[in-house]
Write a structure and sequence with these properties.
The chain has helices at about 5-20, 35-45, 60-70, 90-100, 120-125, 180-190, 220-240, 250-275; strands at about 1-5, 25-30, 50-55, 75-80, 85, 105-110, 110-115, 130, 140-145, 145-150, 155-160, 195-200, 205. The protein is of the alpha/beta class.
Amino acid sequence: MPTRNRCQLACARAQWALTQPAVREVIFVVDGSADDTAARLRSLADQDSRLRVIVNERSAGPPKAKNAGVRAATSDWVLVIDDDDIPSDELIAELLGVAHEAGADIVGVPWFNLGEAEAVEDLVARAPRTPGGPELDRPGLFPETPWADCVWMPANALFRRSIFDVVSYDESYTGNYYREETDLYVSAARAGHRVLVTDRGYTYIRFRQGGGIDRQSKLRYEYSVLRNNWYFLRKHGAWLREQGLIRRPLHEQASLIARRLKPLVRAAGRRLTRRSRR
């Protein structure tokens, strides 16, 4: 797990991971934190030697932090999970089971963004099921079958450690790091590894907390989305189109621009309306 300025979340996730029967080691990469995350995690490590703490004095960003953590791992399987995401019960055991049953190299699950008062059980029960599970920018879809080939999964997934001898998180993604996880899944699939999503679990977030990636202005954030998406499409667009997973890269970029601009235009319209009423 990479973490930054989220001491309470990091410690809670460390304690969760250390209670999982299949876990041999827990690796945190504290990525330029200004709070006491590193000290608190090291205190936990004094009590359980399976916990290892890597500290970047300056923030290197999630791709570099994840690569550093994976390089330090010694287990055959590695779960990469964000510090603010909550896993379903028995998630690690379920992912390992699917990996062995299906002969997979990467296994992920759907992801949900819950409202403050929303029950995760209710949301999961009514979540749509599709032949291939999650789609591009639609992470909350279950596959119709116990597992399905999929490269559109959210960040949290189980990896065969050896795939990182061939692929890694692309450190060229910057700003808000949009598409960095998808890039890894596609790179792995292109290298011949089997990438699956399963219906045997999920992860979710209840609400955004401080820390993590510094929030930019809305315009800078959206610029990062568009820039990183275009980098992703230039890198993988031809292959994705050959697989029937996207239309033309230019069409996908234009579609994303339209989707991302709508909220900005509506917000600007509301501001102009309020000003005109004064």
